[in-house]
Design brief:
globular
């Protein structure tokens, strides 16, 4: 079998691929990469992605969500509810990211620029002065 993922892959490399797919509005690749990260590497903790500035502040917890190994199609919600809840944490460096000093508009796959007041604009990115449509993936 051929794998598109290198055998020496790591969470940081995967994170950067996810970033590229968000910027490129490449939804299928984004979904596939997220599934790869969450399903095939449950040992990769988001909080352990190294800080580009190499600092260590406490991270906050993301209190809701599905287990990493949740199948794409859930057939038994009760079984899923019985699984232990492993909470993800945002990397400390991500908590400290400041908004861009200027507004950056990131076009969609068809090179359309969305208006900042459009209801489909991604709110977390907008707080960072990045104007783009909400990616076709939802985290809770």
């Amino acid at each position: 079998l051929f794998s598109i993922f290198p055998t020496n892959d790591n969470a940081t490399a995967c994170f950067y691929r996810i970033y590229q797919f968000v910027i490129l509005d490449w939804n299928i690749a984004l979904r596939n990469e997220l599934e790869y990260f969450c399903t095939f590497h449950p040992d990769w903790a988001v909080v352990e992605i190294p800080d580009p500035a190499d600092t260590n502040d406490p991270a906050r917890r993301i209190e809701l969500g599905l287990p990493r190994d949740t199948p794409p199609i859930v057939e038994d919600w009760e079984e899923l509810a019985r699984r232990p809840k492993v909470l993800e944490r945002v990397p400390p460096w991500a908590e400290r990211v400041s908004p861009s000093p200027c507004v950056l508009c990131i076009p969609d796959a068809k090179e359309n620029i969305v208006d900042a007041d459009d209801p489909e604009v991604c709110a977390p990115f907008k707080r960072l002065n990045l104007i783009m449509l909400q990616p076709h993936i939802h985290f809770i």
